[in-house]
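Give me structure tokens for this 301-residue protein.
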Amino acid sequence: MIHMLNKTDNENQFVVDILSDLRKDNFGLQAWIRFLGSSWRKSRATAKGNPSLTNSWFSITIFIGLLALAILIFNLFFEGPIETLHVLPGFLFFVVWQQSDLYWHLGLNRQVGTGKQLSALSTATSVTFLRALSASYLLARFIGGIGTPSWLILLALVGGIITDILDGQIARRTHTQTKYGQIADAEADFYLYLAITGILIQQHILPFWFGMFLLLRFIIPLIAAIASYFLFAHPVRFGSTLWGKLSGLALSLYLLLLLVPAKSIIITDLLHLPLMIVTIILLAIAPVAQILRNVGAFPII
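Here you go.
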């Protein structure tokens, strides 16, 4: 156990050192080249030293690639070649980016609490990447300027909710909660809700002011996390808080309310304003709770 903890501490110190060097050189071009080179060598060393882990990454990549191909074929069959060509560049970019990011961070496939390096990526991670794949498809449609029908947004949202519940349950039951899993889960949620929000604003389903509030709610914490990582060499701790779970639930219910086909139901009109208010309040509280969760470990500089 002591060996594993010491190994984790050494890797954390490695990250702090290369980030500190980057900051000392004022984020110049040469500093970025050295930073990326050091990170890549560390990733390659992890991959070579853990062949079973690398093989599991390859298996997940093939699985996600086949699903992406199936989505493109579905798009081609139902919407035609022109629309598919609009979707293709963004979709391929996001899929390749996500799988590359997974390879780059194989070293974070460590069990939360013990720091033990797991020999393979978990089923929970695969489930999380299903949500990331649907987010990639929606983002590609948004960027490509292709209108997205409400039923498809609703399908992606429901699928996102289901996979968000499943990946956490699977990770806990199989004792495969990892640092990377926490990051990937947060990123998948971020991309999915960012895509849905952008599309709903684009199609005038979501009030513009509320949509901008949601976008700021997603983007500001991201900027804060990047600043913490690069400016202070202090990675943000990812993980759920009670307020985060409540805000996510409220937002999901509100979006479902906007997307339900039966818009004429009286109860829908009655719930709209109260649920919007509750969602705004919870979304404002959640990042504060996350900040307080990280403040305890934040270094005094």
